[in-house]
């Protein structure tokens, strides 16, 4: 099962023209340095119709049904890209949204709420291809910023939970109560809370027999191999946020000596798939658009799986589509992970 994840930094480039215009000239062999058309359907085709494509930072307002419908149309529109030689017509996809409804912390221009938000694009024929009996999309009750979506694929005895993650970016800006808007700390504080609550979610699901894969933009580069020209170490709170993340998800650090915040719950003991597969190799996913390609970059998008899931050897590969072409209109490159699940 091929799973892709991509922080697209806004859905607008994919929808600003008429949907059909994206399929008039499918990008099969883009010129060196060229940018493929901003077409989600063409992305799916170019990468052999993956089972799942996670999108982060879609920037769609919770009440904007028109744009949500446009995304569904875009990923299923017919066109030449559906009919490469001897390949036949491409599959249909379902789209699930988790969008911000927090008017105090997720306010776009003019209070539109068009910030953050994730979407999961899932092949409609998943149940007919794999030994799953149900596909369920859900979110969590502790996030209202549109940062987490969980795709649960279940059958006896396989239970697989795929998390689409757009983690909080820690800053000194105020974090407000979603209920009454009162300031209750900074975005740094909310990031630490996000780590704790997500870790608890993983621990609970794991204890109920679920295999768990987290994929998306974690807004943390794990160590010095994941930042170029160097790992970000300023301000100090950013270092503490990283230590907290490593403790809670990768079982690294967490002692009083390294300054990582402590709590009563142990870490989840996850595995950074990229680092486990590629060793010391460097690879980056965040390339700011206002800087020369490769002059400053970080690996903040990746997949993490539970230790028990990793030991089952069902993770068969992972990678980064690390090029200006694949970055497209975003400032992040897509990532992928392959998961072995029973076929029908």
Automatic annotation (TrEMBL):
Annotated binding of Mg(2+), by residue: 7, 57, 217, 219, 331-332
Annotated site residue numbers, Transition state stabilizer: 219
SUPFAM superfamilies: DNase I-like
Superkingdom of the source species: Eukaryota
One Gene Ontology MF term: double-stranded DNA 3'-5' DNA exonuclease activity
Site (Interaction with DNA substrate): 332
Active site as annotated: 166, 217, 332
Listed GO biological process terms: base-excision repair
GO cellular component: nucleus
Cofactor note: Probably binds two magnesium or manganese ions per subunit.
InterPro entries recorded: AP_endonuc_1 (IPR004808), Endo/exonu/phosph_ase_sf (IPR036691), Endo/exonuclease/phosphatase (IPR005135)
Sites annotated Important for catalytic activity: 301
Stretches assigned to the Endonuclease/exonuclease/phosphatase domain: 5-332
Keywords: Hydrolase, Magnesium, Manganese, Metal-binding
Listed cofactors: Mg(2+); Mn(2+)
Family recorded in the similarity comment: Belongs to the DNA repair enzymes AP/ExoA family.
Database matches in PANTHER family: AP ENDONUCLEASE, ENDONUCLEASE_EXONUCLEASE_PHOSPHATASE DOMAIN-CONTAINING PROTEIN
Protein's recorded name: DNase I-like protein
């Amino acid at each position: 099962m091929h799973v892709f994840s991509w922080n697209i930094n806004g859905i607008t480039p994919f929808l600003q023209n008429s949907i059909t215009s994206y399929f008039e000239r499918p990008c099969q062999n883009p010129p060196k340095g060229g940018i493929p058309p901003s077409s989600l359907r063409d992305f799916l085709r170019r990468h052999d119709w993956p089972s799942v494509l996670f999108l982060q930072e879609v920037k769609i307002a919770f009440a904007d049904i028109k744009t949500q419908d446009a995304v569904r149309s875009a990923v299923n529109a017919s066109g030449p890209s559906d009919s490469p030689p001897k390949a036949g017509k491409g599959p249909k996809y379902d789209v699930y949204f988790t969008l911000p409804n927090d008017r105090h912390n997720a306010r776009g221009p003019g209070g539109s709420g068009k910030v953050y938000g994730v979407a999961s694009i899932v092949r409609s024929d998943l149940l007919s291809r794999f030994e799953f009996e149900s596909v369920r999309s859900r979110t969590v009750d502790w996030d209202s910023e549109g940062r987490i979506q969980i795709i649960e694929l279940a059958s006896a005895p396989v239970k697989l939970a795929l998390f689409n993650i757009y983690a909080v970016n820690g800053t000194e800006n105020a974090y407000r109560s979603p209920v009454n808007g009162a300031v209750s700390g900074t975005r740094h504080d909310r990031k630490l809370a996000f780590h704790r609550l997500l870790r608890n979610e993983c621990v609970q699901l794991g204890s109920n027999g679920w295999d768990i894969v987290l994929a998306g933009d974690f807004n943390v580069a794990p160590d010095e191999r994941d930042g170029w020209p160097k790992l970000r170490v300023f301000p100090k709170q950013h270092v503490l946020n990283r230590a907290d993340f490593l403790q809670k998800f990768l079982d690294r650090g967490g002692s009083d000596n390294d300054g990582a915040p402590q709590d009563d719950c142990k870490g989840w003991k996850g595995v950074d798939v990229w680092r486990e597969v590629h060793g010391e190799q460097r690879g980056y996913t965040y390339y700011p658009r206002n800087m020369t390609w490769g002059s400053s970059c970080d690996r903040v998008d990746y997949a993490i799986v539970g230790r028990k899931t990793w030991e089952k050897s069902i993770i068969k590969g992972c990678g980064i589509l690390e090029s200006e072409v694949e970055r497209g209109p975003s400032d992040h490159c897509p990532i992928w992970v392959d998961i072995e699940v029973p076929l029908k």
